[in-house]
Structure formats: structure tokens, C-alpha cells
Amino acid sequence: MDDIIVTVIIAAAVVLLLFLYCRRKRSRTVSAGSPTEAEERRLIKEVKEKTVTVTKRKIMFAETQRTASLFELFKKTNVQEVAKEIVSLDEVSAIMHKAGLEDCNLIFGIDYTGSNYLQGKKTFGGKCLHDINDRGLNPYQSVIGTLGETLEPFDSDGAIPAFGFGDAYTKDHSVFSLRPEEIPAGFKEVLEIYNQITPKIRLGGPTNFAPLINRAIEIVKATNAYHILVIVADGQVTNERATTEAIVEASNYPLSIITVGVGDGPWDTMEEFDEKLPVRKFDNFHFVDYAKVTQGVDNPSASFAIHALKEIPDQYKAIKRLNLL
């Protein structure tokens, strides 16, 4: 009986000592301080960078017979025929990589001009193009999601600056950051921020791409990294001279510009604007009519992605050849 009591006392003492040790260790951890916000952001960034690296490697080594045949089709025929064969955004990414694209960073520019109220009569059920609901994506959400997912494997740092322009405050003078405190991490976060702030924005006008392009040039100069500026707009450029000058200036830097026309159009003026741009160091500007390349096709997202990005590999090669990086 005495042995049992002694054993119980010893066991209780051991449990008490373990409890005190764990509590002391925990108090030391707490007193040392929890990770700062900067450290948390750094850790999150590292995880995201590793994820992007893994995804990139998957694409690089996904050398299938289908990828090779799609790439050959991409080289030899018009992009409409290629779009009919592509079934996923992964295939678009694989084609871009095989065509020579290695690394890129994204910048998004969102048009908040008042014409968004009127430009969805034919192509968006009469709703404002910025309408946000649970029944489906609006054109801006679709463009961000499609190009973000397609180019995410190539993004070297995961950061995607996103700006608005043409609202009642900035008008055609400047741009505003969708998230002023820090750069969004990944296209999904860009979408989240877009969904949060868009209902609060007062639409304005007119349309001028120059301030946005100049801001993108500043980002490229600061990072010395290749960027693709995606301008999503519902109307024609109203200040052609300033926009043209900005596009010409942008050709001195590793920057490609894709303008996506959303809504009813007509887009004849924008197509003419693209064709009559003056000679630059390289052809850095491409326009695509979103409704035209997504309606009546089996895979709208893949069709849009390949149409929007078709000139990117050649532009990237030109940038490297000109030693702009």
C-alpha cells in the first residue's frame, strides 16, 4: 500500500513539473513577442513564391505531345483556329512558355468611366459592366481571373499592382491604387479588392490611358523586371495624343501593353488606333475585343487568353534582344 502511495506522489510530481516547464516555455515564447506583420507578410510571400515556382516547373516539364502539337498550330495558323483546339488555361500557359515566355509580372488597370452603365446592353444583359452579383462574373472580373490564372506561373514575385482610372475623382488626370496600403498578392486578391471597392466608386470620365501607362513605366523602372500592363476599358481613348506618346515612351522599357475592350463597342476606332501607332523600339501594344473572342465558342476563357496573349512571346523576345531588361 505504501508503495502505491509513493508511486502516485511521484507521478503527480512529474506531471506538476511537466506542467510548470511547459508553462514557463510558453511564457518565454509570448514574452519574446509574436511575429510582426512584416514577418508574417514575408513568410506568406515565401510560401507563395514557392508555390509559384512549383507551378512554373510543372509547366516547364509538361512537355506532352498535345502541347507540342498545339504550339505548332499556334506558330503556323491564325489564332482563331488555335483557340478552337485549346481546352484549358493551363494549355495557354504551356504554349506561352514553349513560345519563349520565361518570367513576367502583371499590372491591372480598371476603367471606371460612366459609360460602363451603358456598354452592357448587348453583351451583358443591359447591366452596368461593373455589376457584381452571385449569378456570374462581370467582364472585368473575367479578364482579371483569366489572365491572372494564365500568367500566374510566370509571375516572379506574386505582387500585382492594380489601379483604377476614369472615376469621378481622378477623371483623365491620374489613377488611384485599388489597395493603397500595399500591393495585392496574386490575382485572387486583386479580385477580392475589386469586389470590395467597386460598389463604392463613383463612375466618371473621360477615358485616358496615359496616366496609367506612365505609372506602369515608373513600376518597371523601379523593379527592372518585365511587366504586362492589362488595361480593361469599355470605351475608346479620348486623348489619343497623350496616350500615343505614353505608348511610344513605354517601348523604351520591358513593358507590354494589352488593352481589353469590354462591352458593346463598337471597337473600330481602337483597332485603327492600334494599327496607326508610330514606329517604336518594338511593337508593345495589342488590342483585343473581349466579346468578339468569347461569344459563340466552346471555351470562352481559353479563347480570350490566347487572343490576348498571342503577341507576348514575340514582344518578350524583342525586349531581350534590345537588352531592355
TrEMBL record:
UniProt keyword Transmembrane helix, yes or no: yes
Single GO cellular component term: nucleus
Domain VWFA: 105-264
Protein name, entry field: VWFA domain-containing protein
Molecular function terms from GO: ubiquitin-protein transferase activity
Domain of life, source organism: Eukaryota
Key words of the record: Membrane, Transmembrane, Transmembrane helix
Gene source species: Candidula unifasciata
Pfam families, sorted: Copine (PF07002)
One GO term of the biological process aspect: protein ubiquitination
InterPro entries linked: Copine_C, E3_ligase/Copine_domain, VWF_A, vWFA_dom_sf
Membrane-spanning intervals of the chain: 6-22
